[in-house]
Specification:
- With 346 residues, the protein is an alpha+beta fold.
- 40% of the residues lie in helices and 19% in strands.
- It has 12 helices and 12 strands.
- Strands 1-3-4-11-6 form a 5-stranded antiparallel beta sheet.
- Helix 2 crosses helix 4.
- The protein is globular, with a radius of gyration of 23 Å.
Length: 346
C-alpha cells in the first residue's frame, strides 16, 4: 500500500486517525471500500489513470458511521442496490454525477446526495472529488421513522436524492454533522461514552428524517397515518410525556421514544406541547435536564465533587460549550459560577 497524499501531515485529511487503507491499486481499493459499504464495480474514467485512494471510517454507535473516501482521478462506481444502508454523501470539493432509481443529481459541496437502498445506484465521481459520507443502517432509519409516525411503514423509505445544503431548514443537521466530525477527530468524550454516542446517533437519524425530503415527509409534517387522520390528542398526553421525561433524565431518549411511550405521532405531540407549554417536547426535556444539572451542581459532596463535564454528560449534554450556553441562558450564570457559589465540601 502507498500513503495517499504525502503532504497530509501538514494538512491532515478528515478522520485521518481512523484510516482503513490507502492504495494506488484499483482492485485493492474496490475490495477495502466494499468491506465497509457493499460489493461494487469500480473503474477509472481515464485509461491508465493512477488512483490515489484512501478510506477513513469510524462508527458512532451501532447504526451509523462517519467516512472519508477519495479516489484521486475520476472514477465510475456501480454499487447497484445498497440493500442495507443509506448514504449521505457530501463532496468536500469537486463533485459527482449520481443516479439512483429515476432520480439524478449533479452533486457538489453545496448539494449532497442521499441515495436510498431500494433504488439502483450509479455514480461518476469527478477528478479530485473526495467525499465525507455518513452511512446509516436501513433498519434503524426505518424503525426511527415508524416511531416518529407511530405507525408501521407500508412502503420503503426513499429520500429525495439531492440534499441542498444551503437550505436554512438543514442548518441544524449540517451543524450537527460538523460537530460529530470535530468530536471524533479530536477524540472528544463522544466515542468514549456509549450513552452519549447512542444519543448522538439517534439525534442524527431524527434530524435527517425531519429536515430532508422523502416519501414520508408529508405524513411527518401533517401527523397523518396511512390509515387516516391522527386521532384527537388530549392534554393528558402532554402530562404522560412530561412524566416519562422526568423519569428518563439520564437516559438517551429521543422524540421518537417519547412518541412511542404516549402513542401519538411526532407532529401531534409537538403541536399539543406547543399549545399547552409554549415549548417543543425536546425543548421541555432540555430544560428539565438543565434543572437537574443545576441541582447536582448545587449539591454538597462529602468527597470530591464531580466535574462540571461529568454532570453535563450524565444529563446528555455532550457538547460542553452548548451546555454552558444553555445553562447561562436559563439561569443567568455559568455552571462554574454555580459551583463556586456552593463552595468546597465540608
Amino acid at each position: 500500500m502507498h500513503t495517499a497524499q504525502q503532504n497530509s501531515t501538514a494538512h491532515p485529511l478528515p478522520l485521518e486517525r481512523y484510516r482503513l487503507f490507502d492504495s494506488h491499486d484499483l482492485d485493492e481499493a474496490r475490495e477495502f471500500v466494499g468491506r465497509v459499504f457493499c460489493p461494487h464495480d469500480l473503474a477509472t474514467l481515464r485509461p491508465g489513470a493512477q488512483l490515489d485512494a484512501c478510506h477513513h471510517s469510524v462508527p458512532l454507535h451501532r447504526d451509523a458511521s462517519l467516512n472519508y473516501v477519495q479516489y484521486g482521478p475520476a472514477v465510475r462506481i456501480e454499487p447497484g442496490h445498497l440493500g442495507g444502508f443509506y448514504l449521505l454523501q457530501i463532496p468536500l470539493r469537486g463533485g459527482a454525477m449520481v443516479r439512483c432509481g429515476s432520480q439524478a443529481v449533479e452533486s457538489h459541496a453545496l448539494m449532497a446526495s442521499l441515495p436510498s437502498p431500494t433504488e439502483a445506484l450509479s455514480m461518476r465521481w469527478h477528478d479530485d472529488s473526495p467525499q465525507f459520507i455518513v452511512k446509516i443502517d436501513r433498519a434503524a432509519m426505518q424503525s426511527r421513522l415508524s416511531a416518529l409516525l407511530q405507525a408501521p411503514l407500508h412502503q420503503p423509505l426513499v429520500f429525495d436524492l439531492g440534499v441542498d445544503l444551503t437550505n436554512p431548514a438543514l442548518l441544524g443537521m449540517t451543524s450537527f454533522i460538523a460537530y460529530l466530525r470535530s468530536a471524533v477527530e479530536t477524540n472528544a468524550i463522544l466515542l468514549g461514552h456509549p450513552l452519549l454516542a447512542e444519543q448522538a446517533e439517534n439525534h442524527l437519524l431524527t434530524s435527517l428524517l425531519l429536515s430532508t425530503g422523502h416519501n414520508y415527509s408529508a405524513a411527518l409534517a401533517s401527523g397523518a397515518f396511512s390509515s387516516g387522520a391522527v386521532p384527537t390528542v388530549l392534554p393528558r398526553v402532554v402530562k404522560r410525556a412530561q412524566e416519562y421525561m422526568h423519569s428518563q433524565l439520564e437516559q438517551p431518549i429521543t422524540l421518537a421514544d417519547v412518541c412511542a411511550h404516549v402513542g401519538v405521532s411526532a407532529r401531534s405531540l409537538q403541536q399539543t406541547f406547543a399549545q399547552c407549554t409554549g415549548k417543543s417536547p425536546m425543548a421541555f426535556l432540555r430544560d428539565l435536564r438543565l434543572d437537574a444539572a443545576r441541582m447536582a451542581l448545587q449539591s454538597k459532596f462529602a468527597e470530591r465533587a464531580p466535574q462540571v463535564s461529568d454532570i453535563a454528560a450524565r444529563y446528555g449534554f455532550f457538547h460542553l460549550g452548548h451546555f454552558a450556553e444553555g445553562y447561562r441562558r436559563r439561569f443567568g450564570e455559568t455552571p462554574s459560577e454555580t459551583r463556586q457559589r456552593v463552595g468546597p465540601p465540608h
